[in-house]
């Protein structure tokens, strides 16, 4: 399960110092024999114990009397992190921060950082809108979602269709990441649904109304551990999914290039690949294997999305470097999707305050680390796309795939790599806000009109589009108006493909935890999990309340470890685990080519000139 890092508080009781010590043990072992079983490797934190004051933490340390005087932005419902009681939540402003506070009659106050930039919060909030839920919800009861988030399944209150459906095909994994509690540990039951059970899930998703799920993410554990992974993809394709992505470490593909080819032929279009940093320290999970995975993906023509989980003090100093890495491999890397960490489970407050980072926090660091090339003003919230979507719906009269998640859940921008190595964010030559307002006016004008009239308005609108594009600033290698026009008129993946070949999408997706929980967000969630019992669950109920949803259902469909062993003759837990040969990997041509010859785009004079850290010659010690 590599698209998120949900930190299990229970595994973190010993805090930062232990992480450092653990990291050092691994380094010594690596020095001795260069063969590392990477189970339980922990990244080192960048701040030491001596640090006692951090201005970022100030909003946590005020008195309740002081906090209650802060200006309220809005009221919501949330949960007590201790007992999960649904309680009132207040989202309020504290200087530059947006915070959430809540009070449980039994467990007292909880104060948490919600967004680390008030101005950006208010800007993104403008694009909030309700999408379409389900005409055929799975779970209908007398509550009608009033007990949200405990009426899930989906219920009739939910306000977004399934944008991305996650299907877990195994909980076995070849790694044992220290923060993860998705994979089956030794002796635990194995969850590996049969093809028949998976078919049921796929067709259930495809039968959603009015918009059938169209994008599928096959996940785990490590999904390539499933012996029938290729067959599973074939079945998903047959069920009618247009886009199928595999959420993977990429390690098994690096070891077995022919598997990548088979997966591509079966229908996988994208590898959604964990990548927590360019350096070995920040990314002990797959730093060494990624160069081979990139090469294998190139040959198989599978696009890659790098998925870094961002933890303050752990890898937040490498955000610019990761974007630079993507630019160096932009022939195959389509996107970097940063995921600020979700701190699931009870966690000591000191550690939580230190490691918490929100979308604007990461955006500000990217601005610093890219010399201002990708600045705070270059980002837009995900539901911004809704304006474009509404225009397409009004034009065609058909429901379109929507992106109606809450504005605080996701943000993104496109950056273009021009022929002279200049990096140009899309917002530098497109007036994005003006364009959406312009489209909204066209949508209003089309309201109640017949097909021909709508078409005439659309043509007029598309002709007027050019005024939002500054040709003098657009990348020399593209004609953006032409590209956009064909995107609107054809609206197909071939056009999207052309667009992506010249750009890298930089995204942010912040999943919730008990501290930040806001039902205004979860009721709009469009990233869902589908289960064999027919339930479809928002990401942030599935993972934040595992005892209510994920674990309960998976348990019903799991096989006890002993029984698994009896029915799978050759299987042992130890055999599932991956052992890395660092020396061999570092000597490989792919490794030297990938890390040894990187251009530092942000150090080039054309992009501002100050170097991003160079990790090419870094030692793992
Ligand atoms: S242990 Fe496996 S499933 Fe869990 S995060 Fe690591 S790679 Fe993903
Ligand atoms: S999260 Fe959605 S499906 Fe779940 S209870 Fe709330 S509105 Fe209903």
TrEMBL record:
The keyword Acetylation does not apply. The keyword S-adenosyl-L-methionine applies. It comes from the Archaea. CDD domains: Radical_SAM. SUPFAM superfamilies: Radical SAM enzymes. It holds the Pfam family Radical_SAM. PANTHER family: 7,8-DIHYDRO-6-HYDROXYMETHYLPTERIN DIMETHYLTRANSFERASE. This is Radical SAM domain protein.
């Amino acid at each position: 399960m590599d698209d998120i890092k949900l930190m299990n508080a229970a595994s973190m009781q010993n805090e930062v110092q232990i992480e450092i010590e653990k990291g050092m043990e691994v380094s010594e072992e690596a020095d001795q024999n260069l063969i590392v079983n990477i189970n339980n490797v922990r990244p080192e934190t960048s701040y030491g114990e001596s640090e006692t004051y951090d201005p970022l933490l100030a909003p946590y340390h005020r008195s309740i009397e002081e906090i209650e005087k802060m200006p309220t932005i809005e009221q919501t419902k949330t949960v007590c992190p201790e007992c999960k009681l649904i309680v009132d939540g207040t989202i309020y402003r504290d200087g530059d921060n947006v915070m959430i506070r809540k009070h449980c009659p039994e467990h007292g106050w909880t104060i948490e950082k919600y967004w680390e930039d008030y101005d950006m919060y208010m800007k993104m909030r403008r694009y909030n809108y309700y999408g379409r839920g389900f005409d055929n919800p799975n779970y209908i009861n007398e509550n009608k979602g009033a007990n949200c988030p405990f009426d899930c399944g989906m219920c009739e209150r939910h306000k977004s269709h399934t944008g991305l459906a996650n299907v877990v095909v195994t909980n076995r994994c070849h790694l044992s990441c220290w923060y993860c509690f998705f994979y089956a540990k030794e002796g635990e039951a194995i969850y590996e649904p049969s093809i028949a059970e998976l078919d049921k899930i796929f067709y259930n998703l495809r039968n959603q109304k009015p918009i059938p799920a169209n994008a599928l993410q096959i996940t785990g554990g490590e999904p390539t551990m499933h012996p029938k992974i290729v067959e599973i993809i074939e079945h998903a394709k047959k069920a009618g999914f247009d886009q199928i992505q595999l959420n993977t470490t990429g390690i098994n593909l690096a070891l077995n290039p022919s598997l990548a080819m088979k997966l591509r032929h079966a229908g996988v279009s994208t590898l959604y690949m964990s990548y927590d940093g360019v350096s070995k320290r920040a990314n002990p999970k797959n730093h060494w294997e990624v160069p081979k995975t990139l090469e294998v993906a190139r040959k198989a023509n599978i696009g890659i999305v790098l998925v870094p989980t961002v933890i303050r003090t752990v890898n937040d100093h490498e955000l610019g470097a990761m974007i630079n890495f993507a630019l160096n491999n932009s022939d195959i890397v389509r996107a970097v999707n940063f995921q600020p960490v979700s701190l699931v489970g009870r966690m000591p407050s000191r550690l939580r305050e230190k490691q918490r980072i929100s979308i604007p926090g990461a955006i500000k660091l990217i601005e610093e680390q890219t010399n201002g090339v990708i600045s705070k003003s270059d980002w837009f919230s995900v539901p911004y796309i809704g304006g474009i979507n509404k225009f397409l719906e009004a034009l065609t009269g058909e429901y379109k795939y929507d992106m109606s998640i809450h504005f605080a859940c996701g943000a993104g921008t496109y950056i273009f790599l021009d022929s002279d190595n200049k990096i140009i964010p899309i917002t530098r030559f497109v007036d994005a806000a003006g364009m959406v307002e312009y489209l909204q006016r066209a949508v209003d004008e089309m309201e109640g009109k017949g097909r021909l009239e709508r078409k005439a308005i659309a043509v007029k609108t598309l002709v007027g589009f050019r005024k939002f594009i500054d040709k003098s600033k657009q990348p020399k290698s593209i004609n953006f108006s032409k590209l956009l026009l064909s995107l609107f008129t054809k609206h197909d993946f071939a056009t999207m493909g052309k667009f992506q070949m010249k750009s890298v999408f930089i995204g942010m997706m912040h999943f919730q935890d008990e501290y930040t929980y806001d039902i205004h967000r979860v009721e709009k969630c469009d990233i869902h999990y589908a289960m064999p019992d027919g339930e479809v669950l928002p990401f942030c109920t599935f993972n934040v309340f595992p005892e209510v949803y994920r674990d309960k259902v998976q348990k019903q469909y799991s096989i006890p470890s002993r029984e698994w062993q009896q029915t799978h003759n050759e299987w042992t837990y130890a055999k599932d685990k991956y052992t890395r040969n660092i020396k061999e990997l570092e000597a490989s041509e792919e490794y030297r080519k990938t890390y040894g010859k990187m251009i530092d785009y942000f150090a080039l004079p054309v992009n501002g000139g100050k170097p991003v850290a160079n990790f090419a010659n870094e030692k793992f010690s």
